[in-house]
Design goal:
The chain is mainly beta. It has 3 domains: about 240 residues, TolB, C-terminal domain (Neuraminidase, 6 Propeller), CATH 2.120.10; about 90 residues, Immunoglobulin-like (Sandwich), CATH 2.60.40; about 70 residues, Immunoglobulin-like (Sandwich), CATH 2.60.40.3080. Strands 18, 19, 20, 21, 27, 28, 30, 31 and 32 form a 9-stranded antiparallel sheet that branches. It has a 5-stranded mixed sheet with strand order 7-8-9-10-14, with no helix packed on it. Strands 33, 34, 35, 36 and 37 form a 5-stranded antiparallel sheet that branches. Strand 33 and strand 34 form a beta hairpin. The longest helix is centred in the N-terminal third of the chain and has 4 residues.
Length: about 500
């Protein structure tokens, strides 16, 4: 509980005696963000009885401490065993981060907030000598002497005097809730946004270190602070949603990848929610480098502040306002799958073509258009035909001259849930942006006839290999020998959004 108490549920009731009462040391703000924020059991807890807590101390510092349970009373911690491993000063009361997780490597990971206020005024998230706005990793198997932890030898910045050794990634705003996929070890982060966007970050297990998640330079996939210098190893979110109550929200609560057996159609989906709007989403890889994200038909019953996972992979959600724990269940199959979505010019019209798997309870498709890649309005719809396994659709709409036309599909399922397609765009102006990627000798070339902002190159697994700020038109080359062989994914950020290309190295 945020007020400092940890309680035990024995399967039928909550035990009267708290597992630990840390209310005397944890600063709790009623209606605020400070307090007891997380706990985690050591991987060898069954034999060493150690567990860890993350809280704000009397000075407001985010604090990591270790305790041990009583020998004869496994459901009670011994408060005299508490030792502090780390205490990180912070200038404001909000943005504390707050989730402890052990990785499959046995190390303890935790994400810290940027220190609070608005816009990260001290630039903590991008400052390597600050432990704020970071993903941290430490070895907590040093039980006897202070500081009761050591630095894993594989931490990426051990030889860099400008970045603290405990840090494995920078550029986070407030990773309040994040998790590992228990099957793959992949990392999922729900990072709370600033004024406009909430974001979901994903990293495969082999590529979770030496990264920059972008804040305060980027909020989601959108530029927030245009005075930033080049960011090496920048990570682009796989999904972000705008601040509104209908299709977005205002404060993301990161969840888990479902690995339980009770709902097979949930298998492999990452589940997350928004604390303010009460909206709920599922997202999963489409197997081709993209993601399928579905907004559930019904909102969560209360504002969900946290998710949890049991030993069988079942998922639970916590309601902060009413102190209730909910089990996450499913009432219908996962919705239809969009196979492809494209747009092309035909005379003075735009033709949208898409293909879907209609076996999965599709109802209708709403075509939406935008001229700013932000605010979309409905311009037509098609009723789904569920009689075939695969179905192709087309939609013709007059173009708007001298405007950039962005389109997306709103896939409405029979249970009322909603899935959005990726966004495609057609530019009617004569200065149409043309981007091309190709290999010439040992060099990877990217050409563009109008000014772009930056180029990011990743390998087929999504691991970021390099970033370059461009802010010009022309052609830019990269030494192909520095990249692994195989498919390279090239993301080009420009004034109209982002273009994704692929080239074989």
């Amino acid at each position: 509980e945020q007020n400092g108490k940890i309680k035990v549920w024995n399967g039928t009731s909550v035990l009267a005696t708290p597992f630990l009462d840390a209310s005397a040391i944890a600063t709790y703000d009623v209606g605020g963000e400070r307090g007891l924020l997380s706990m985690a059991f050591h991987p060898n807890y069954a034999t060493n009885r150690y567990f860890f807590i993350y809280y704000n101390n009397a000075a407001g510092n985010v604090t990591l401490a270790r305790y041990q349970t009583k020998v004869a009373l496994p459901n009670e911690a011994d408060p005299t065993t508490g030792v502090v491993l780390m205490s990180i000063p912070k200038p404001f009361t909000n943005h504390n981060g707050g989730k402890l997780n052990f990785g499959t490597d046995g190390y303890l990971y935790f994400g810290t907030g940027d220190g609070g206020s608005s816009g990260d005024p001290n630039n903590n998230a991008q400052t390597g000598t600050s432990n704020l706005g970071k993903m941290m990793r430490i070895d907590v198997n040093n039980f006897s002497t202070a500081p009761y932890y050591s630095i894993p030898p594989t931490n990426p910045y051990i030889t860099d005097p400008n970045i603290n050794d405990e840090i494995i990634a920078v550029g986070l705003r407030n990773p309040w809730r994040w998790s590992f996929d228990r099957l793959t070890g992949d990392m999922w982060i729900g990072d709370v946004g600033q004024n406009l966007w909430e974001e979901v970050n994903y990293r495969p297990a082999a590529s979770i270190t030496n990264l920059n998640y972008g804040w305060r330079c980027f909020e989601g996939t959108h530029v927030y602070n245009n005075t930033c210098s080049a960011q090496p190893n920048n990570v682009v979110p796989i999904f972000d949603y705008a601040h509104n109550n209908a299709t977005g929200g205002y404060s993301i609560t990161g969840g888990y990848v479902y690995r339980g057996a009770e709902y097979p159609f949930f298998q492999g989906y990452y589940l997350f929610a928004d604390y303010v709007s009460k909206n709920f989403w599922l997202t999963k890889s489409n197997g081709a480098g993209g993601w399928i994200t579905t907004q559930a038909a019904n909102q969560t019953p209360v504002s969900i502040s946290s998710f949890g996972e049991d030993q069988n992979g079942n998922l639970y959600a916590a309601g902060l306002s009413n102190g209730t724990i909910y089990k996450v269940t499913a009432t219908a199959a996962v919705p239809l799958k969009l196979v492809s979505f494209t747009a092309k010019k035909i005379n003075n019209n735009h033709q949208l073509d898409w293909e879907v798997n209609t076996q999965l309870k599709g109802d209708k498709f709403i075509v939406e258009r935008s001229f700013d890649n932000f605010s979309f309005i409905e311009v037509g719809n098609k009723i789904a035909d569920a009689d075939k396994n695969m179905e192709q659709y087309s939609f013709l709409i007059p173009s708007i001259n001298n405007a950039i036309n962005f389109y997306r599909l709103k896939l409405v399922n029979k249970d009322g849930s909603i899935t959005y397609s990726s966004i495609v765009g057609i530019k009617e102006k004569d200065d149409l942006l043309k981007i091309k990627a190709y290999k010439s000798g040992n060099r990877i070339m990217v050409s563009f006839n109008n000014a772009i902002k930056s180029i990011q190159i990743s390998d087929g697994s999504g691991r970021v290999l390099c970033n370059r700020n461009i802010n010009a038109a022309g052609e830019f080359g990269f030494d192909g020998n520095q990249f692994s062989k195989g498919i390279l994914i090239i993301k080009v950020l420009h004034e109209n959004g982002m273009s994704v290309l692929k080239v074989m190295n």
